[in-house]
C-alpha cells in the first residue's frame, strides 16, 4: 500500500464526489460498480486502490479543493478576505452576497451546503464496507485495517455535515430506500465519535515507510480532537490533544512560514499534489500576486482585508495604533514592526514578491489597486492594497501553463495546541493549562506570553487563533460554533488602503453593510432532499 498510488488515482473520483447528488446514489445503490465487484477483492492491491480513493476526501474539503465553501475561500464569508470581482459567481460576488444579503441563503440555494458531497462520500464508504462483508477472503486483521481507514473517512465526511446542520441522516450501511428520519445533533456526534474510536483502536500506531501518510492512531486521535471541539465535548477534546502531545510525534517547526508546507514535524494530516501529473490544483493561478515582469491574465482574485491586517500585534506584543491611517495619511505604516506571521501571510506595500518591491497602488505596476465595484472583474488587482502570500507558491512563475503542486495541510500541530488551550479554558482548569499551549505558539514567532485569565484570555485566544490559522479555513466555522457571528458580523463593512501618489486612503471595500442572520447557524436542508425523503422535514426556521 504505497502512498504514491493514493494520489495518482484521485482525479476522476474527485469530479464524481463533487457532482453526484444524494438521491442519485439512493436510487442506484444496487447497481454494479468496481467498488463492490467481487473481482476487486482478488488481490490486496485492488482493495488498496479502493481505500486510496477515500484519501481524496482530505482534498475535497481543503482550501485547494474548495469543497468547504463551494469553491470560495471561507474567509470571504467573514472579515478576513475580499474578492475583487463585483461580477456574480464563485470566487467573485457570491461570498459577498451571502455576507450582505440577509435572506440570500435558502433551502434551494446554499453554496456552503455540503449535503450532497457528504452523502456521496458516505455512500462510497458504506458500499466498500458492504462489499468487504460479501467478498473478502482476507484475514480478519487485514480487513480491520481497511475498515478502520474507511470508517475514519466516513467520520471525516460526517463531521462536515455536523458542523453545518442540526443533526443528520445516519447511514452505517447502504440504505434500503430513500426514506429515513434525521437524527439529532448529539446522535450524529456520537456516531462520528464511534467511527473515530474504532479507527483509533484498530489502526497501527504508525505505518511503515512505504505507507507514510496513511491515517494511523495518532492522526485519527488528532482529528478526534478537532471533532470534539465542535461537539463541545471538552474533556474528550482535551484528552485527545494530550494524547497527540504525549506521542512525541509532532511539534512546531521553527519557521511559521514553513508550518503549512507539509512534509514536516508539524503536519499531521496532509494531502500531497503533483503539479506535473495528477492530482494538481490551481490555487496559485487564482490567488498569486501578478507583477509586471510576470504578466498573466488572471490571478489575485481574493485579497486580505485591513480588518485582518489589524489583528497582528507588533513584534513586542503590543497593539499597533492604526488611528492616523483611518483618517488618511501620506506616511507609510510601519509594516515591518508587525510580528513575523504578518509578513508570512500577507504581501503588503513595500514587501518583496518574486524579487520585486510591491507597490499595491493605483499607479502600480507591481500590484495594481482597483476600487471595488468600479469594474465587473478585478483580476490581477487588489481592492484592499494587499495580496495573499500564505499558501501561495512564490517560486511558481508560469501561472498560465503550469498547475500548482503544493501540499494541503489539513491538520497541523499548532491547531492541536490551540484546541487543548480552548478545551482547558472551558473545563475551568488552572490558568496555566490554557495559557501554556497558546504561549508555546507565540514563542515560535518571538512574541511575549499572554498572562490574561478568564474571558480576557478568551478574547486574546480568539485573536491568536485567527492569526495563527489565517486562511486555513477555520475562522468562519469558529465564529459559528462560538455563536459570535451574529454579534460581530453585523452592521459593518470591510476596508483597505487605496494608495495613490504615496497617500494611504482608508476606503470601504464593501458597497453594503454586512449582516449575519442568526437562523443560518443551522443551514437549511436542501429542498430536493426534503422532497425525496418522506421522513425528512425542513427545520422550522427555514419553512
Question: How would you describe the overall organization of this protein?
Answer:
The protein is mainly alpha-helical and 543 residues long. 39% of the residues lie in helices and 7% in strands. The chain is built from 21 helices and twelve strands. The strands form six sheets. It has a two-stranded antiparallel ribbon with strand order 1-3. Strands 2-10 form a two-stranded antiparallel sheet. A hairpin with a 2-residue loop joins strand 11 and strand 12. The longest helix is centred in the N-terminal third of the chain and has 23 residues, at 140-162. It is globular and about 75 Å long. Mean pLDDT is 93; it is low at 1-36.
Average of pLDDT: 93
Sheet having the most strands: 2 strands, antiparallel
Span of the ends, CA to CA: 48 Å
Number of strands: 12
Tell me the fraction of residues in β-strands, as a range. Answer: 5-15%
* Rounded Rg: 23 Å
User: Which stretches are low in confidence, meaning pLDDT under 50 for 5 or more residues running?
Assistant: 1-36
Q: Classify the secondary structure makeup into a structural class.
A: mainly alpha
Strand order of the largest sheet: 1-3
Tally of DSSP helical segments: 21
Residues in helices, as a percent range: 25-40%
Shape: globular
SSE inventory with pairings:
Layout lengths: L2 H6 L2 H9 L2 H5 L17 H11 L1 H5 L20 E3 L9 H8 L14 H21 L4 H23 L22 H18 L14 H15 L2 H14 L19 E5 L11 H5 L14 E3 L1 H4 L13 H4 L13 H6 E2 L4 E2 L2 E2 L10 E2 L11 E2 L4 E2 L19 E5 H14 L4 H14 L9 H15 L6 H7 L3 H4 L6 E6 L2 E6 L18 H6 L11
Parallel strand pairs: 7-8
Antiparallel strand pairs: 1-3, 2-10, 4-9, 5-6, 11-12
Amino acid at each position: 500500500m504505497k502512498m504514491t498510488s493514493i494520489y495518482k488515482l484521485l482525479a476522476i473520483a474527485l469530479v464524481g464526489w463533487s457532482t453526484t447528488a444524494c438521491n442519485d446514489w439512493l436510487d442506484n445503490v444496487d447497481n454494479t460498480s468496481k467498488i463492490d465487484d467481487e473481482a476487486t477483492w482478488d488481490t490486496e492491491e485492488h482493495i488498496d486502490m479502493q481505500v486510496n480513493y477515500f484519501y481524496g476526501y482530505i482534498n475535497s474539503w481543503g482550501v485547494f479543493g474548495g469543497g468547504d465553501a463551494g469553491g470560495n475561500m471561507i474567509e470571504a464569508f467573514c472579515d478576513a478576505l475580499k474578492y475583487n470581482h463585483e461580477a456574480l459567481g464563485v470566487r467573485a460576488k457570491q461570498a459577498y452576497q451571502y455576507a450582505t444579503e440577509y435572506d440570500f441563503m435558502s433551502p434551494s440555494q446554499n453554496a456552503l451546503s455540503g449535503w450532497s458531497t457528504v452523502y456521496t462520500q458516505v455512500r462510497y464508504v458504506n458500499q466498500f464496507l458492504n462489499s468487504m462483508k460479501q467478498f473478502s477472503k482476507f484475514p480478519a486483521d487485514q480487513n480491520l485495517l481497511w475498515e478502520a481507514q474507511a470508517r475514519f473517512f466516513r467520520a471525516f465526511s460526517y463531521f462536515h455535515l455536523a458542523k453545518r446542520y442540526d443533526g443528520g441522516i445516519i447511514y452505517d450501511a447502504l440504505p434500503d430506500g430513500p426514506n429515513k428520519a434525521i437524527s439529532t445533533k448529539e446522535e450524529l456526534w456520537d456516531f462520528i465519535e464511534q467511527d473515530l474510536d474504532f479507527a483509533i483502536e484498530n489502526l497501527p500506531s504508525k505505518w511503515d515507510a512505504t505507507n507514510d501518510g496513511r491515517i494511523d492512531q495518532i492522526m485519527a486521535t488528532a482529528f478526534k480532537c478537532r471533532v470534539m471541539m465542535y461537539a463541545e465535548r471538552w474533556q474528550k477534546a482535551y484528552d485527545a490533544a494530550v494524547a497527540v502531545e504525549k506521542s512525541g510525534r509532532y511539534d512546531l517547526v521553527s519557521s511559521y512560514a514553513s508550518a503549512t508546507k507539509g512534509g514536516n514535524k508539524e503536519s499531521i494530516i496532509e494531502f500531497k499534489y503533483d503539479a506535473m501529473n495528477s492530482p494538481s490544483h490551481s490555487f496559485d493561478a487564482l490567488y498569486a500576486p501578478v507583477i509586471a515582469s510576470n504578466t498573466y491574465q488572471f490571478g489575485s482574485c481574493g485579497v486580505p482585508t485591513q480588518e485582518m491586517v489589524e489583528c497582528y500585534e507588533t513584534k513586542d506584543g503590543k497593539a499597533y495604533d492604526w488611528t492616523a491611517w483611518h483618517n488618511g495619511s501620506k506616511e507609510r505604516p510601519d509594516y515591518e514592526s508587525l510580528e513575523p506571521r504578518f509578513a508570512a501571510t500577507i504581501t503588503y506595500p513595500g514587501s518583496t514578491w518574486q524579487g520585486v518591491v510591491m507597490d499595491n497602488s493605483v499607479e502600480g505596476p507591481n500590484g495594481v489597486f482597483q476600487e471595488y465595484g468600479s469594474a465587473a472583474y478585478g483580476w490581477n488587482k487588489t481592492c484592499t492594497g494587499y495580496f495573499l502570500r500564505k499558501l501561495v507558491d512564490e517560486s511558481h512563475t508560469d501561472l498560465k501553463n503550469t498547475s500548482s503542486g503544493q501540499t494541503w495541510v489539513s491538520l497541523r500541530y499548532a491547531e492541536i495546541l490551540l484546541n487543548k488551550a480552548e478545551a482547558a479554558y472551558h473545563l475551568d482548569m488552572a490558568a496555566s493549562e490554557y495559557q501554556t499551549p497558546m504561549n508555546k505558539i507565540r514563542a515560535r514567532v518571538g512574541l511575549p506570553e499572554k498572562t490574561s485569565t478568564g474571558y480576557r484570555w478568551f478574547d486574546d485566544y480568539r485573536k491568536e487563533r485567527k492569526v495563527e490559522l489565517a486562511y486555513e479555513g477555520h475562522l468562519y466555522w469558529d465564529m459559528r460554533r462560538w455563536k459570535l457571528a451574529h454579534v460581530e458580523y453585523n452592521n459593518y463593512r470591510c476596508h483597505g488602503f487605496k494608495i495613490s501618489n504615496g497617500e494611504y486612503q482608508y476606503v470601504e471595500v464593501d458597497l453594503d453593510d454586512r449582516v449575519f442572520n442568526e437562523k443560518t447557524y443551522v443551514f437549511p436542508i436542501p429542498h430536493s432532499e426534503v422532497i425525496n425523503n418522506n421522513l425528512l422535514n425542513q427545520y422550522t426556521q427555514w419553512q
